[in-house]
Design a protein that fits this description.
Blueprint (H helix, E strand, L loop, with lengths): L3 H9 L3 H12 L6 H4 L3 H17 L3 H16 L17
């Protein structure tokens, strides 16, 4: 197991963008966890906010702002989860 000193050293060697990317990856809701977390507003907002930081550090301010607005919507309950992408869709014949 890494000691806190080793972790601190590794973080100091990383750029802000790399740290943000690691955090965004950790906060991403995987397809495996989608059903469990689809209504978890904190998890959804955290996913959007960490993604916004990556976009901001890549100088993509419009994308960052869109993610920030999504996160705000999760927190103030103006955004609701979308239906499962693999369930409930009937094909038109």
């Amino acid at each position: 197991m890494n000691s806190s000193l080793e972790i601190k050293s590794n973080i100091e060697d990383m750029s802000n963008l790399e740290i943000a990317q690691v955090l965004a990856q950790r906060m991403m809701i995987s397809s495996y966890d989608w059903h469990k977390l689809k209504n978890n507003r904190k998890a959804q907002a955290a996913q959007q906010l960490t993604a916004s930081l990556v976009y901001l550090l890549n100088d993509e301010t419009e994308e960052a702002l869109a993610r920030i607005n999504q996160a705000q919507g999760w927190l103030n309950r103006t955004v609701n989860p979308l239906p499962c992408p693999t369930h409930g869709h009937k094909k038109n014949s």
